[in-house]
Design brief:
By secondary structure, this protein is an alpha+beta fold. Among the domains are: 139-191, Thrombin, subunit H (Beta Barrel), CATH 2.40.10.170; 195-297, Methane Monooxygenase Hydroxylase, Chain G, domain 1. It has ten helices and five strands. It has helices at residues 2-15, 24-45, 73-86, 104-119, 195-206, 216-229, 232-242, 253-274, 278-290, 293-307, and strands at 139-142, 146-158, 161-170, 175-180, 190-191. α8 crosses α9.
Length: 308
């Protein structure tokens, strides 16, 4: 039984067509188809391009993008430097340093040095007080104007500098004068003469006249300088030299002016010192002038000449 079965199997194998076995060309075609399968799958995922006549879908309109302006190189360089400058520097925390413990002697030295540090402070600048011999309300003699009265002390600012000024009133001349306190003595301002000086001035008036034999213009300048000096004795000398009695020739106009100026200065000071009126002071001066030895001698000489 086995032999017939074997014969049948061999016949069946021989009956199978020879095409069942793949040829080498078919093998190559199958391998090429397997390689092309992934590429086909990738191509199927892509959308199909529309036909030429078909309308294309409208693209979404995006706003035009403007390109950013480039900053100049100098500005780009300065910006970081400015940012660096503006950025505050981190302040490092002070390191804690352990203070050395001073011995008792050193502590005493520190305590002793404190008064010295306090004394080293500069002292506050105080306005210096001006010492002067004149007071408000008293009478004084100003060389160019004679006797005046200090009515007060004023403070004025001149060219940015504050000045203390004496305010002097001259009632007879109807004039007010302001003199700096620091310059009062330098310009010749003085107090009223004392009684002894007044007595000497009256004695000078009683003396003999001393007239220089020079030109009148030069003598007039000397007399004017004596009057403006403010010295009572010098003024008395002018009164003595320019006085003319009734028996003497009359004065010229310029002589009369100088004589009256000197007599006015002298009488005003004597009236202020003796506290009498100016009229009484003038009368007192003229009485002393009449006692001069020269006046009587010249009068007798002129009388003898007229008799001859």
């Amino acid at each position: 039984m086995s032999k017939p079965k074997e014969k049948k199997a061999a016949a069946a194998k021989a009956a199978k067509p020879a095409a069942s076995k793949p040829s080498p060309s078919k093998k190559r075609a199958v391998a090429a188809a397997q390689k092309a399968a992934p590429a086909r799958k990738a191509g199927a995922a892509k959308p199909k391009s529309p036909a030429r006549g078909a309308a294309r879908p409208a693209a979404a309109k995006n706003p035009p993008v403007t390109p950013a302006k480039k900053k100049p190189a100098a500005a780009q360089k300065q910006a970081p430097t400015a940012a660096k400058k503006a950025a505050p520097k981190p302040v490092a925390a002070p390191k804690a340093v352990a203070a050395p413990v001073a011995p008792p002697k050193a502590a005493a030295a520190v305590v002793a040095s404190k008064p010295a540090a306090v004394a080293a402070k500069p002292a506050e600048t105080k306005k210096p007080t001006i010492k002067t011999e004149f007071k408000a309300g008293e009478y004084i003699v100003y060389p160019a104007h004679g006797v005046g009265r200090i009515v007060g002390i004023d403070t004025q600012e001149v060219a940015g500098i504050k000045l203390d000024l004496f305010v002097i009133s001259f009632l007879k001349d109807k004039m007010t004068l302001r003199v700096p306190m620091t310059k009062a003595t330098g310009v010749g301002m003085r107090k009223l003469a004392d009684p002894n000086t007044v007595k000497r001035a009256l004695e000078t008036v009683r003396g003999r006249a001393r007239i220089k034999r020079t030109m009148w213009s030069r003598r007039a300048q000397e007399y004017e300088a004596k009057i403006n000096s403010g010295d009572l004795i010098s003024i008395a000398e002018v009164v003595r030299d320019l006085y003319r009695s009734e028996n003497q020739p009359e004065q010229s106009y310029s002589e009369r002016q100088l004589y009256e100026a000197a007599l006015d200065r002298m009488s005003r000071e004597i009236s202020s010192v003796n506290r009498i009126s100016e009229t009484e002071a003038i009368r007192q001066i003229e009485q002393n002038l009449a006692k001069s030895p020269r006046r009587g001698a010249r009068g007798s000489e002129t009388a003898d000449a007229q008799a001859a």
